[in-house]
Amino acid sequence: MFKKIVLVMAIFALIASAGSVPAGKATKFTVNLVQPATVQGQELKAGEYRLSLVGDKLTMAKGKQSVEVSVKVESVEKKFDNTAVRYSGTEKLQISEIRIGGTKTKLVFSN
Fold first, then answer.
1. SS3 of residue 13 by DSSP
2. CA-based torsion, 74, 21, 32, 62: positive or negative
3. CA 59 to CA 7: how far, in whole Å?
4. How far apart are CA 65 and CA 46, in angstroms?
5. DSSP codes, 19-78
6. What pLDDT digit, counting tens, does each position of 94-109 carry?
7. Rounded CA gap, 5 and 3, in Å?
8. Backbone dihedral region of 47: left (phi > 0), alpha (psi from -120 to 50 degrees) or beta?
9. What pLDDT does 82 receive?
10. Does 49 map to a domain?
11. Are strands 57-62 and 72-75 parallel, antiparallel or unpaired?
12. What number is the average pLDDT over the span 49-54?
């Protein structure tokens, strides 16, 4: 009986820790920009970017292009189904946030 309780508690702990981006450890994922945009004044072409997050620093890389920017990492109550990029602006689109699919993590950019 005791072993079952410990096993159930371990499973709940694992589930509770899943779905958020760990702090201080490099977290990697990809995002597809469907159109050119800027992030904190730096221009990005459309295409797939490899993202690496360490603390509040995000590196966005595509081929030889690499951009490092500051982000605010926020956690929401419900996991995002898909990765989504939110834009602001009309003439030159600026990335305002990235919602990481399969997690409760949202990256907010200051522009």
1. helix
2. positive
3. 38
4. 12
5. TSPPTTS-EEEEEEESS-EEETTEEE-SEEEEEEEETTEEEEEETTEEEEEE-EEEE-SS
6. 999 999 999 999 999 9
7. 5
8. left
9. 92
10. yes
11. unpaired
12. 94
**For residue 96, what is the enclosing H or E element?**
strand 94-99
Q: Which residue range forms the structural domain that includes residue 100?
A: 21-108
Confidence of residue 11 (pLDDT cuts 50, 70, 90): very low
Residue 26 lies in a domain: yes
Domain count, the chain: 1
Q: What are phi and psi of 110, to 5 degrees?
A: -95, 125
- CA-closest candidate to residue 35, choices 47, 53, 43: 47
Judge whether 38 lies within some domain.
yes
Q: Is residue 89 part of a domain?
A: yes
In which order are the strands placed within the sheet that holds 65-70?
27-33, 47-54, 57-62, 65-70
Give me the chain's average pLDDT, please: 81
pLDDT per position as a tens digit, 65-96: 899 999 999 999 999 999 999 999 887 899 99
pLDDT for position 110: 84
Predicted confidence (pLDDT) at residue 51 exceeds the cutoff of 60? yes
